[in-house]
Amino acid sequence: MTFEVEKVRHDFPVLSQTVNGKPLRYLDNAASAQVPNLVIERGSEYLRKEHSNVHRGVHYLSQKATSAYEAAREKVRKFINAGEAKECIFVRGCTEGINLVASGYGRKFINEGDEILVSQMEHHSNIVPWQMLAEERGAKIRVIPMNEAGDLIIDEYVNLLNERTKMVAVSHVSNALGTINPVKEMIETAHKFGIPVCVDGAQAVPHMRVDVRDLDADFFAFSGHKMFGPTGSGVIYGKKEWLEKMLPYQGGGSMIRTVSFEKTTYAGLPEKFEAGTPAIASQIGLGAAIDYLNSIDLDAAFAYEHELLEYATERLGAIEGVRIIGTAKNKASVVSFTVKDIHPHDIGTILDQDGIAIRAGHHCAQPVMQFYDVPATARASLAFYNTKADVDALADAVTKVIAVFA
After folding, report:
1. By three-state DSSP, how is residue 231 classified?
2. pLDDT digits (tens, 9 = 90+) for 307-320
3. Which of these, 301, 280, 386, lies nearest to 64 by C-alpha position?
């Protein structure tokens, strides 16, 4: 199976530029992936020819914008294999999606003494909303531990489940370690206790095929900007039976059926959770990003990406003084590392001089840094438009960093 990476790279205009006189080597895809021409042109077309508010307008532009907006929702449904389009709620990104679940589910179903399980490797967006909810409701956060390789300890997870557990919150793929968690099995185990599971899928959707019905996920959140779409776009998938029981996340226009000063009744799905004017251009752009992904050989792309990950792990791991953080056998897209006593911010700054874009910091995963007893890591994160030349440039630059500080 051959993946034509050079052909794909031509679809992403940002990749053709230079930084500090060097070819751009963009290795910060876990933070935000780049955007192909198809998505740029579709967003531009909407703003030039279709811009109008959606749903309630009877005029031509509003009807056209509404059709494009709802067509994007149907594209999402097919892409993740949701049962119905109305189970796909448009949000600004994964963070808002998880907050929506924490608020709408939590205020209805979580009470004093209840427990919420959160894994030790979660992004802050799948920790803080649950902490806020637990503090408000008198519930307790319990942590699913991980081992030194960066794998969750599943036996400990099973032992934590009990009649007080009301939610499990876990990432499909760790943004800080690249670990692919066994979420299907974790969901199956939780369901034996009648416990719903909220999956942070932000790092999964761009790097593997996701079927929410096969996973049997109760909630699955992801962001458009990590899957080659615009910022301000994203989805929280939820099973209809949960969404219909949950409280609205925000109040205002669009999410109502009737309003009086005595009582308000709420609209059905998905409008119930989409108060106010949405990010129309961004969500139409998300639909275009799905069109783009459907236009390439995704299986070949994902296989190629995995080859790159193995190559990057080998190249960086061979450099004396480099410590790779997160060595799980089942990984996707991410190589996090430290270099001797050199702060990752210094690594990132020096690499930028060679046109190499990585992320340096705690990656909104401070508990992970605490576990490995490091203040931060340097993180190279890959996409299918990256090349072995990008990885070689990264390894050579890291070697140069070590020489500078020596």
Report:
1. coil
2. 999 999 999 999 99
3. 280
d(CA 319, CA 337): 11
Q: Give every CB contact of residue 398 below 8 A, 6+ residues apart in sequence.
A: 316, 319, 322, 339, 347, 351
Q: How far is CA 70 from the centre of its chain?
A: 22
Q: What whole-number distance in Å separates Cα of residue 117 and Cα of residue 145?
A: 10
Q: Which residues are known to be catalytic?
A: 364
**Secondary element (H or E) of residue 275:** none
Rounded Cα distance between 132 and 327, Å, is 32
- Stretches where the chain sits below pLDDT 50 are none
Average pLDDT score over the chain: 97
Instruction: State the Cα–Cα distance between residues 70 and 3, nearest whole angstrom.
Output: 32
- Residue 394 CA to residue 23 CA, distance in Å, equals 12
- Specify the length of the chain in residues: 406
Q: CA-CA distance, 180 to 223, in Å (whole number)?
A: 18
First CA to last CA across the chain, in angstroms? 43
Q: Which amino acid is at 297?
A: D
Q: Which domains does the chain have, with CATH numbers?
A: 5-30+297-405 (3.90.1150.10), 40-294 (3.40.640.10)
Radius of gyration, alpha carbons of the chain: 22
CB of 280 closer than 8 Å to CB of 256: no
Degrees, nearest 5: CA angle 302-290-241: 100
Structure confidence at residue 406 (pLDDT): 82
In sequence order, what are the residues at sequence separation of 6 or more whose Cβ sits closer than 8 angstroms to the Cβ of residue 122? 169, 170, 171, 200, 365, 367
Residue 199 and residue 217: Cα distance in Å, rounded?
Answer: 7
pLDDT for res 109: 98
- Report residue 405: phi and psi, to 5°: -85, -15
Instruction: Answer yes or no: are the C-beta atoms of 203 and 179 closer than 8 Å.
Output: no
